[in-house]
Amino acid sequence: MDDLFDAKLNKDLKNTAPLADRMRPLNFQEFMGQEEIIGEGKLLRKAIEADEIPSMIFWGPPGTGKTSLAKIIAQITKSYFVPFSAVSSGVKDLKEVIKDAQEKRKFRGTRTILFIDEIHRWNKSQQDALLPYVEKGIITLIGATTENPSFEVNSALLSRSRVFVLKALTKENIINLINKALEDKERGLGNFVIQIDSEVLEFLANMSNGDARTALSALEFAVKATKENAKGEKIISKEIIEDSLQKSYLYDKAGEEHYNIISALHKSMRGSDADASLYWLGRMVEAGEDPLYIARRLVRFASEDVGLADPNALPQAVSAYQACHFIGMPECNVILAQTVAYLARAPKSNALYEAYGAVQRDIKDLPNEPVPLHLRNAPTGLMKDLNYGKGYKYTPHYDNPVAAKQDYLPDKLRGKKYLRK
Question: Rounded to an integer, what distance in angstroms lies between the CA atom of residue 215 and that of residue 204?
Fold first, then answer.
């Protein structure tokens, strides 16, 4: 009886699963995008079809097919597929999977693919626990992550896996997926009479940011929430799609995208492109970045990239920081915008940055040079007897700059030029 109830439960779950899950591709023919790694003739495609797959890490943004691709690989290679969430599973769960994998390999000759979603959320010790089983081939690991595996996956585990980068789906990929969902009567929305024009489809595809799950979830919500008209049709307008979409920003304040976007902002300002600078600023501010973090970066930029070419840049940036501290968000967004535009348009000079870098190198690479005697203070008689301060020229007493000329650097650095511009 339990088996009958389990079967009924699985059938109900399948029928009521979200559209994005129901429309998950079942084979390479249905899979959209990622032609660079699994297209005909590509190395990974050949390895899968030859049943010679390595452990691997799929790295890419949400909704690009990481889980679907792992399931297709398991299906083609006739492997036992074990989905594992790094958020809710730990080493104890892993040991049970390993024990089961060993038995399946021993008695049935069946290989186990362990799919770990969000593998970047596992800590070092948890990731280390995988190593011996990956090395021995007891399991084939497929990890999925939205974060750069160079930073988030242990080097030992990374060296035993191949990393494949999945890209955001194109607008055309998304439109094809939507049309398929609209037509499919078994897994999709084909049993509804849905009217949605091409402009609305294109709008939905664009606003999905290359994320198939976002597109299909918004479409499903729009269709279910829309009442049929007198003809039994569901008319899906742009306004309905806008309401169905929960606008998401590809930005993680603790992840790689944080550094990517602040880098884009910095380089756009350095390149004097005010429009691009304002765009990258907006991407950070609208995603909820701490305005004081941005303001601190602007203060640094004012000296590093503008420097002496416009000495007013630093007061502008410091004022922006103070203003952001005073009034906070959302009011301080225009203050940040003003400062970003000012810094982007300001003349640039990295002479100070280069000069101080040269100073740092000399301090690191050279011995600590003594201060020349003529530059030293002589507050005691002993110091005077030792010639501290002897020969120092007090420049305000000289009308002729040439006559006041003297060396200020240590003897071994005499004549050294740090500030070259």
Answer: 6
Helix runs in 39-90, H state only: 43-49, 66-76
Quote the Cα angle for 1-85-188, to 5°. 65
The CA–CA distances, whole Å, from 117 to 45, 89, 122, 250 equal 21, 10, 10, 18
Which among 223, 248, 218, 221 has a CA at the least distance from the CA of 233?
A: 223
Of all residues in the chain, what percent carry a pLDDT higher than 70? Answer: 94
Task: Give the pLDDT confidence of 232-291 residue by residue, as tens digits.
Answer: 999 999 999 988 886 655 556 656 778 889 999 999 999 999 999 999 999 999 888 889
pLDDT band at 346 (very low <50, low <70, confident <90, very high): very high
CATH code for the part of the protein at 256-345: 1.20.272.10
Beta bridge partners of 83: 115
The whole-angstrom separation of Cα 419 and Cα 308 is 11
Distance of CA 110 to the CA centre of its chain: 37
Place domain 34-165 in its CATH homologous superfamily.
P-loop containing nucleotide triphosphate hydrolases (3.40.50.300)
CATH class of 171-244: mainly alpha
**Does residue 152 have a pLDDT over 50?**
yes
pLDDT of res. 76: 94
Asked if 63 and 144 count as a contact pair (C-beta separation under 8 A), the reply is no
pLDDT of residue 1: 43
The rounded distance, in Å, linking the Cα atoms of 140 and 111 is: 8
Question: Could you identify the residue written with the tokens 């559209």?
Answer: 19
Q: In whole angstroms, what is the distance from residue 217 CA to residue 23 CA? A: 11
Tokens representing residue 341 in the block: 């535009």
| E-assigned strand segments in 175-244 | 193-195, 233-235
Q: Kindly give the pairing relationship between strand 162-165 and strand 193-195.
A: unpaired
pLDDT, one tens digit per residue, over 156-182 is 899 999 999 999 999 999 999 999 999
Q: Where in the chain is the domain with CATH 1.10.8.60?
A: 171-244
Q: How far from 84 is each of 60, 104, 249, CA to CA, in Å?
A: 18, 18, 26
Angle at 234 between CA 230 and CA 240, to 5 degrees: 125
Q: How far is CA 340 from CA 232, 288, 328, in A?
A: 53, 17, 17
Instruction: State if pTM tops 0.70.
Output: no
